[in-house]
UniProtKB/TrEMBL annotation:
Its cofactor is Mg(2+). Belongs to the 5-formyltetrahydrofolate cyclo-ligase family. The keyword Magnesium applies. This is 5-formyltetrahydrofolate cyclo-ligase. Coiled coil: none annotated.
Amino acid sequence: MSHNGPSAESDKRALRRDLIAMRSRLTADDVREYEAALAERAEELPELAGARTVAAYVSVGSEPGTRALLDALRARGARVLLPVLLPDNDLDWGEYGGPDSLTRVRHGGKMALLEPAGVRLGPDAVTAADVVLLPGLAVDARGMRLGRGGGSYDRVLARLERTGAHPALVVLLYDTEVVERVPAQAHDRPVHAVVTPSGVRRFCARM
């Protein structure tokens, strides 16, 4: 059952710590190997294979790698939107034009992010996406996603709901991050599918 309050928040923080520690043990070779497999599996998802516009993100550090997938989507003609972190943790968007179109940006004391260097399209640009790829740390059997806690994608999901947009919501994870239960709160929304290096799992029908 979803609930608010300090218990859910503290449970989320504890699970985040454990999952981030597991990722930190991956080598650069591990990440590269999983990235190639993740791109192959993602393209097996019909919604992604047929999408004209995909809102994605550039993985950093030991996150499940997205760059091979970004290039594969662009090569088949999809328009790929990438996030730009704003000072209030909301997200603006820009179009991916290949690896050379990215610039490294450090936001305060946070990890440096790779962001699109071109024209800013505005926070509402995400509402045109057929598929939104979400970063995360885990997903459970209900499709509930555990994010990093910054709230950026909570705002994206709220914006999609507010504008009546219904893209496929897909989270990209390692196989070990599909877990039995993620602490959930009233504002949390399930994703439609998870892609891992070993395959695709669906959770609920598209609305």
